Amino acid sequence: MRQYIIRRLFISIFILLGVSAIIYGLLRTAPADYVSTITNGIPDATPEMKAKLTELYGLDKGIVEGYVDWLSSALKGDLGQSFIYNKPAQDVIKDKMWVSFWMALPSFILQLLIAIPLGIISATKQYSITDYTVTTIALIGISLPSFFFAAVLQRAFSMGLGWFPLQGMVTAREDYVGFAHIMDMAWHFVLPITVLTVLSIGGLMRYSRTNMLEVLNADYIRTARAKGLSEHKVIYKHAFRNTLIPIVTMVGGMIPGLFSGAMITEGIFSIEGLGYIGLKALRSGDIPFMMAFTMFLAILTLLGTLLSDILYAVVDPRVRLK
Amino acid sequence: MAEEKVLQTNNQPEEVANLEKIVTPGQLVMKRFLRNKLAIAGVVILVCMFLFSFLGPLFTSYGEYTIFFVKDGVEFSSDDHKGMDPQESGVKINGKAKPSKAHLLGTDKDGRDILVRLMYGGRISLLIGFVVVGLQLAVGVIMGGIAGYYGGVIDNLIMRLVDIFYCIPTLPVMLIVSSIMVAYGVPQEYKIYILMLIMGILGWAGVARLVRGQILSLREQEFMVATEAIGLHPAKRIMKHLIPNVMPQLIVIATMGMGSVILAEASYSYLGIGVPFPLASWGNMVNTVTDPIIMREYLNIWFPPGFCILLTVLGFNFVGDGLRDAFDPKMKR
Amino acid sequence: MKKFAKKFLVLSVVSGLAASTLVGCSQDKPQTDNGTSQAAGEKESSGDTQKESKYKTVVVASLEMNGVFSPFFATTAPDNDIVSMVHGALIKTDRNAQPEADLADYKIEQVEAEDGSVSETIYTFTLKDGVTFSDGTPVTADDIIFSYKVLADPAYDGPSTFSTLPVVGMEEYNKGDATEISGIEKVDDKTVKITLKGIDPSAIWKLGGIEVAPKSYYGVDDAGKEYAKGDMSVPKSRNAAPMGAGAYKFGSFENNVVTLNANENYYGGAPATPTIKYQVTAESNKLEGLKLEEFDISDPSSSPDMVADVEAAGFEYELIDNLGYGYIGMNAERIPDKNVRKGLMHLMNRRPAIETYYGDLATVIERPMSTVSWAYPQDATEYYGFDPAKALEYFKAAGYEQVEKNGKVSLEKDGVQLRVEVGIPGGGTMEHPTAPVLTQMKTEMEKMGAVLEIADTDGTVFFDRLETGDWDMWVAAWQATVDPDMYQTYHSQGPSNHYNVQNEELDKLIVEARQTNDIEVRKDCYSKALDIIMDEAVEMPVYQRKNMYVFNQEIVDMESLPENMTPYYTYFAEVETFRLK
């Protein structure tokens, strides 16, 4: 297994190289660079001044040369200064990823608590009214655009009932500290977390349902039933445990993704997470930050896959990774 | 519960009949599919949506982006001035009109008929779904097929490519590509095709992975050894004998993929990189929901496109779910 | 909502106490300004005739911030709002866009050469007595010169165009090895003299409009490293925490909220409102947030629906002309034939679109200039009315003919169809007042057999293509500068002449208007110049709109806002006397 992990990490380096080259190429081909972002509101910016800025930001280099420069400093652990924030790009990511994480984690836990039981219930009662209702509700969640659902929630629970704040992370008027501050933030996070949860329950629920169905059709379940075990015992002692194998694998793979941020939802709720600033950076042509951000996302994806493979081997003793 | 019982009693005689008649696998799948009420509902929804979008516009005289004006209660449009001068003072755009006989769902903020745009929007949204999924399948099947069949170095190379595409974040790339398109002055009518092309290219990795995995296990089975023994051409072996065995999974992925592509287009529209103005798509129509005034007071503007998206995506998911249950040979119930 | 607020208030008091006993009371005074009901019982000693405010904090809605609040490097409007609260400038604008002394009194002298032309202009700024930074240290001439030098530094990569001013010695400093800018001299501790080559009516804004940055803060970083020419890292180290001579001190930028605290050392007197906060919000929520009391001052984009909504909610609001105007521009290089341009002009039906979108909140304008400007000719009348027949005449005069092709009409010249691409920064969703104008234009052109391609894109890409002269036609708005000078935009050599208009007579008028300070003469020049621009058919002026500022009058003391606000003089123009109820 150790050999397997080492091999995977080795491959990952090549994947990251490929991703970074593609993204860098695209970013540099894109028309709006950072210099035009800062100068387009100024009518008296002379071409000379723009040329100078282009040079200062290193945007006058060719794509290949620029990439090689970026790569060589990235290998030394320096991902460059973010143009917008005038800070090292990795520091900006380190700052903001926790906001995204604290929004994603509760949603992730809720998702597990809701989706897995629902999936199992609807599998044990396949083609019943319960199955149909549960499936329909879960699928409605994944059949809505996130911004649409968020807007409806804001309308209903904020503008309409006034239960939750419309947006933001804290009550600006107050200077809460300590526990009150945390509660205040939690209160602001209710709606975004609901959006994230509802939007992702469907997938996991469906996955659990299918896997449970497969297990229920297996021979050993028939044997268990034939032995005369109670249905309850069959399902929760024999079937459920085996369903857990694929579920744990999938869920494990999702964990790194908790840091990646949600571009659209964070924007709607004015939450300054990684997705929110990533979108802003992208729009203004902040190349160093975008490179760091996409590398970060790629690493998270790779970690997710690796983690889920490892879990697969850990949970299911029949599997040997090589 | 009652329903379940009826089903069971109905099933008994049929199963007995099955023993006497020979049932093809296709018939079996069909039977299992038809048992799933949600899947049937999905099919009905989708058929209705297709009819609405593709035949609907034939029954109206309004164009996709005809603007309606109003003066002193008299309405005229940019297609048919009815002898009025659209420049006169006092002429207003008949925007945000409430539903009426002339406009069953009212008009949007720029004075265009919502029902008509909903139909045209449906065409585009559904078209995007089909084209993008088709592209993903085509590329994915070919790459996955080659990788799985040949193995070795080729497999390794293709799978690394798959890994790379798997790690590229879609949204940022879409944003960059769309700005590149604007910069190089890609004509508007082609933009939407390029959009579809990019969405297709970014999404093939999953399909390729699946196809490769399936083929790897199929390759070792006896029937493949047999095809090799009789000397079939590799292309024929892949297309005729391997792919059909992966087909069920592909159909399921495709159906569900259709729904997610429609959703993705809506998100792109929200970020301003979706189907370009003045063409309609459900995605760019449902965007109006983010304007609090429209949200609160003009249900007729934001709700219909949202509902269409919801129903259609739900329909695709129902059908996909039903197909998967039906195709799965391990499902005996 | 009310219920929740109360609950949190109780919690916060408890935890506040707990925290202070544990840490050993790190604050000078207990947390008193957290909120509404609590602050009510408090009285601070004051001999003022004004009664004590019940509220201590006001929250202002803002669009997203980058958190770069440096007077040198802030690029976006929300960031600059913070900078101008924390920093003081040498001069400010009065209600009519004329310069007025702020931190410093100013004097402009012109040196005439032997031939009678102006060879040099000398600006002298003298700091007022008692002007200090918020840390209590006095503002000196050295701080002013330091600020200039950072802006003129060869390594300066911010948005200021200061280095393009014809200051004597600027070239040598900005491009060469000079260690000082010879045209900028320290006369005494409070006085700076700047010598400019020639005359430039707008230079006063670039020289006096700078926010003075304390050298002791921006010139030395925390590690003790001092600023040296050619290295921006020291001034940049202060980007996130500005300090200056403004009415407010920067507190923090956390969780998308900026906190500003009153600067007791402000030369205009300690501000009446202790805390101002800026809450970042999405444009679409600017009114809803006000209704939910998430903020107290907001500027939702004005529309008749919005006004009705604000009135229904019972808020007080102010409508102030926007400094700028909306237009549709054409690139004379890409559409070289004037007749084609004129034809296109006749296809723009502006009135219904603007009346529908803005109602009374905008007017259709007839000359490309903000009506706010003193130079706008008030008697101007319509130049190109909506008239498809006339448009077709112009197209035919340009050599276009309608031919039948595959059963469709096609408007062609030498076998090439008339095809125009127009760019509009509608964010991809065509959220733009001019949208119906273009839609109708598209329909009319289709009827004639021509094609209008509408490319809706987000701002950066749009401006980038505009910059490279890549649009046939585009929809945008000009942000008016305080001075109506047209050189940048319409002179054949102007750096922002996106229209590519080349007209000798126009050039002459523009240069003439730049060389005098006589308002009447300039007015006349500009009126003639505007007519020429209209005749060139490179720009269709569309609308002059109003901005809307909405206040929660339960919290904001409306009496304390400046009277007769103008676009140059808005609600925070007299922030030191701004108070809450």
Automatic annotation (TrEMBL), chain A:
A GO cellular-component term linked to this record: plasma membrane
Keywords from the named record: Cell membrane, Membrane, Transmembrane, Transmembrane helix, Transport
Region forming the signal peptide: none
Keyword hit for Transport: yes
Residue runs in coiled coils: none
Database matches in InterPro entries: BPD_transp_1_N (IPR045621), MetI-like (IPR000515), MetI-like_sf (IPR035906)
Membrane topology per record: Multi-pass membrane protein
An individual GO BP term: transmembrane transport
Domain ABC transmembrane type-1: 97-308
Membrane-spanning parts: 9-27, 101-120, 132-153, 185-205, 243-269, 289-315
Compartments reported by the entry: Cell membrane
Family statement: Belongs to the binding-protein-dependent transport system permease family.
PANTHER family: INNER MEMBRANE ABC TRANSPORTER (PTHR30465), OLIGOPEPTIDE TRANSPORT SYSTEM PERMEASE PROTEIN APPB (PTHR30465:SF0)
Name this protein carries in UniProt: ABC transporter permease
Organism listed in the record: Zhenhengia yiwuensis
From TrEMBL, chain B:
GO cellular component, one term: plasma membrane
Domain ABC transmembrane type-1: 122-320
Keywords: Cell membrane, Membrane, Transmembrane, Transmembrane helix, Transport
Name this polypeptide is given: ABC transporter permease
Compartments, record wording: Cell membrane
Pfam families reported in the protein's UniProt record: BPD_transp_1, OppC_N
Organism: Zhenhengia yiwuensis
InterPro entries recorded: BP-dependent_transpt_permease, MetI-like, MetI-like_sf, OppC_N
UniProtKB/TrEMBL annotation, chain C:
Region (Disordered): 25-51
Superkingdom assignment: Bacteria
Basic and acidic residues bias locations: 41-51
MF terms in GO: peptide transmembrane transporter activity
Comp. bias regions, Polar residues: 28-39
PROSITE patterns: PROKAR_LIPOPROTEIN (PS51257)
Ranges where the Solute-binding protein family domain occurs: 118-497
Homology family: Belongs to the bacterial solute-binding protein 5 family.
Pfam families in alphabetical order: SBP_bac_5
Ranges in coiled-coil conformation: none
Keywords annotated in UniProt: Signal, Transport
GO cellular component: ATP-binding cassette (ABC) transporter complex; periplasmic space
Organism: Zhenhengia yiwuensis
Listed name of the protein: ABC transporter substrate-binding protein
Any GO BP annotation: peptide transport
Span of the signal peptide: 1-18
